[in-house]
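Structure ticket #2291
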Amino acid sequence: MSLRVGTAAISALVVALVLSGCSLLGIPDPGASASRTPTPTPAAAFALDCPAVVDDADLTAFLGADAKPVTDVAGITTSVAAAGPLALPAVGGSSCGWTHGKDTLTVEVLPHAADGWGQLAAEHPDVATPGADYQGGVSLGGDCALTPTVWCRTNVLVGGAWLAVDLRAAAVAGLTEAGFHGAVQRMLPTVTAEVSSAPAAATGAPLDCSADDLRAQMQTTYDLPAVTPMDVDATFRVDSAVLRMGGTTLCVFGRGDGGSGGGTAVGSGYLGSLSVLPAAPGVYDRLRAAVLAQDASAHSETITVKGEEYPALVWNGEVESTPFVSVDAVVGGRWIEFHSTDTDPSRALAMVQWAAGKL
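Resolution: structure written out below.
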């Protein structure tokens, strides 16, 4: 029996610690490890030209003339890695954001997402309902509420990429649903042009979260009679599509066999989560900076994978009074993280080393 937990619950109650290495703290840089030719191919960097994607007039209409671009991404150290804000760029996507007070406009683009779009649409027809009639793109799963507050969002498959636009505001003078979709329509030519030159998608098979050897390894590592994989809820949204990209895995595990001792809440029966993401260029630096800016106690340990040594970051803390340990490493073009409420770091290290050996 498996348990079920949504990615929002994971993000709220467990921390995704990010890959790090810093010479100032004596933490080795994984980029300095011996070179080799890995089987998986990591995603290459892709960055939207944000000022070109959203017209100045549309941005002013949505958020006002004082709207500012978002420069500090929230949630990097308060989310499980594969469900956090850096999962999108890790798999080769990009996002733009603007804010004015508490009002926000977010644009996310995930190239090479046509397969994930089709799979999620088939699996969630209740959400993937026909959307606005855009020229040059197919829309599913959008909705737009103008009262009591504004929340308009849409999903468009354009040039094989998933475009997600989300507008949230207390009020937008004169805004209509047609006006929102008109602004999205004006984004499509630029997005189409930019994704046409996007680098190739990451490759690599995911890990099987229900595999007997993975469960056995966790039971041995954590000295438990049983460990249960928890189902991660998916829906027709771009963050679920991220988990369908090559080289990506999110496994969440509960203590016990799924009976009365397990529970479905992450905070109660939750044992740990395993994230595997492609290590796209630049994402590592953002992860490292966020962790080291927050916690001076981060330190490096060493894991050995197929005869080679790699540095792994060990990071401890707590979220909502729940202590955790998290270990991150880059091996063979993948960023691997194990996070657990069991605060023995040697166990999380063992899981990262084991997972790296399976990739």
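Closing remark: Residues 50-196 form one domain.
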